[in-house]
Structures are given as C-alpha cells and as structure tokens.
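WARN retry 2 of 3 for item q-0093 after timeout on previous attempt; input resubmitted unchanged.
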Amino acid sequence: MKRFKTIIDVRTREEYASGSVVQSINIPLNEIPDKLEDIRQMEQPIVLCCASGGRSGQATSFLKNQGISCDNGGSWMDVNYLVNQNI
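OK item q-0093 returned
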C-alpha cells in the first residue's frame, strides 16, 4: 500500500466513535457526495476505509469518477495496522 496523505472512514458516526484510525476523518458514506468539494481540497492520495471494505469501495469508485486520487483500504482495522507499522 502506497503512502496516503488522508484517511477517510466512511462508517456511521456511531461506528467511528467505537474505534478508528488515528488522524482519520469520518465522513459517512451517504455524506460523501455533499462533501465532494471539501474532499477535493484534502491532501491526496486518499485511502478510504469502513468496517469490511464494501462501503469504502463504493466511496472509492464515486471519488475516482470525480477525478480524485484514492484507493479502497478495506477494513479500518487493516488500515490502522498498516499505519501503525509505518507502511
């Protein structure tokens, strides 16, 4: 996994509050289209995560279609592991 500048967690606020990647940003999947301009201003590349990778996959597809450099990181726990390993 290449180095990402920004991590967006697309789980619900409740899920995010129960545990998350340090310095990640919580934007629930259903809010991604409304936050598009804010996301464009974030440092890229962006990695997206959620509980298992399904919702982050949807968000990744949408954002790539909008010209945003991003990848699906899958589970937030997997992303958290990689961040903690400095990978």
